[in-house]
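Example 3.2
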Amino acid sequence: MKHVVPVAVGLAAGMAVGFFLGAMVTRHDEPIVVIHNATDETLWSVCIRPDPTKNLWGVPEVSVYCTHELQPHRTFTERLSSHKPTALNVDATKAGGKKLSSEKVNVASRDVVFALISSDGIKLQYQRLISF
């Protein structure tokens, strides 16, 4: 019985450390986009459109991240699966069919892009996160 408690504590500590190291290895250094619907109407669709990238064989790949029916005064967050610097813009379609689009912004890994969607358009700001 004396040996069971230290072994259990060691296993629990090892599992906790392994979990955090695994999370850091798999999902770090990816840009995050936070989109807020500041309008009083539901947006039919909101899409994040990064520039096309090339895969290992040189073939262009296009990734588009979309959400549908973003409710008024709600926020949507998406992590982009890219470890390279890329340019992106955000598009939205309002309930009446009117399309809004942001300017293109260059982001790197660890950047957080904030998109504010209003009735006038889409404003982007970004913040570089520094980790030690």
